[in-house]
Amino acid sequence: MNGTAPGPGDGGRVPRMVPPLDPRFRPMAFATAGLAAASEDDGARIPVALAAAQPAGSAWHRRTWVRPAGHPGESTSHRAVERLCKFLLWSRGASRLYVDGPEPLVAYLACHYATTPTGMFDARFMGPLLFGLPFEVVAAPEADFPPEHEATAALGRHLDGCRIGFDLGASDRKSAAVIDGEVVFSEEIAWDPSRQADPQWHFDQVMDSLRRAAAHLPRVDAIGGSSAGVYVDNEVRVASLFRSVPPDAFEARVRGLFRELQAAWGGVPFVVVNDGEVTALAGSMMADTGGLLGIAMGSSQAAGYVDRKGHLTSRIDELAFAPIDDAPDAPADEWSGDRGCGVQYFSQQAAGRLMVAAGIDVDGSSPLPERLVCLQEHMAAGDARAALVYRSVGAYLGYALLTYREHYDLDHLLLLGRVMSGAGGDVIIETARAVLAAEDPVAAEGIAFHVADERQKRHGQAVAAASLPALR
After folding, report:
1. Phi-psi sector, 15: left (phi>0), alpha (psi -120 to 50), beta
2. Which CATH architecture has domain 286-462?
């Protein structure tokens, strides 16, 4: 399809390679580019500077523009800036959003985060839950912004000694025993943590996995793990795994759960980080490179980034909540309620949604992993409808990469997770590459795609997690 037809927004356009099962998809990158092109043509624009800042000193700057007051595109440009702010918040994490721009824009953003359900979700997550502070929109001249800075840490790549690596996902928990970088034991156990309200249940389940791995080691020198959610200094800040735990029990027991586990293992070096970050670290270790974004398409979308020096950063990389689709009727995330966010495009939720659009008969009450197995069976049998599902995910990915490249200095993309398994994963990559070639040949040449083989999937994440702590 020709990409010059007008789309939603101020000067937007439709994609050249429309996802076959989602013709209304509108890439977020096009909304930004369309606004830029239109406002440059007629000169009716006001510059805007933004900064997303964390209390510890990390801060990231961006510049954009809005239409002046009274312009027909003013409200559209305000929303475009809010979408950019949302991407900054969920890719970086920040308790303060600095804005140097016209007063109506500042008022719009302040109202959004104070009164709208989706804005209030973002503000609560970024403020009290993540950083323990109120979230603030601060009007200030750009000269008064905190300086741009990104903290990095050389976590991982420690392979000496006898180590345990673990990973806590939404549908299974994994553990492995590692001796001098070699996996001597690994296993995967199904669980359903999001429904469990008792913190002791969570403690016992994780402890069970650690003990099962320790039984295969002569001693335990260090423990490293990954888990869905946001973790700072081994403290649980926000995690969907514990969504059923009451707030008082969360504060009393869950927030310090991993420190309690560390104490139970005699205080050995113990590090837990976001699962997406360990995905990126594992990919960096396997490919022996930096500048890598890792994306795992599982129960949700997990993401992580390793900079060009191979270091993890102070970004939170929660791309499941970052917007990639500007269509007004884009699917909504069940947790935040916002539309067009990554989780509905790169996960089992996406596969289940697209199966319905493809006309594949599926029990809507069945768990998402079972629906994915059904999809994979149809794909293996040569069902053209299943191929449309994977082609749609691949088109989403190609267009999302146009946005991701604006926010990440990356040359490498690691893809894994159950959605990427089997022949469908090949279709996703093939389609994403075709989108990049059609829309941005420079990006197509500049991103190397990586996938993990079955052994790397089983062991690479475990080794990367186990390698997080340095021995004393």
Report:
1. beta
2. 2-Layer Sandwich (3.30)
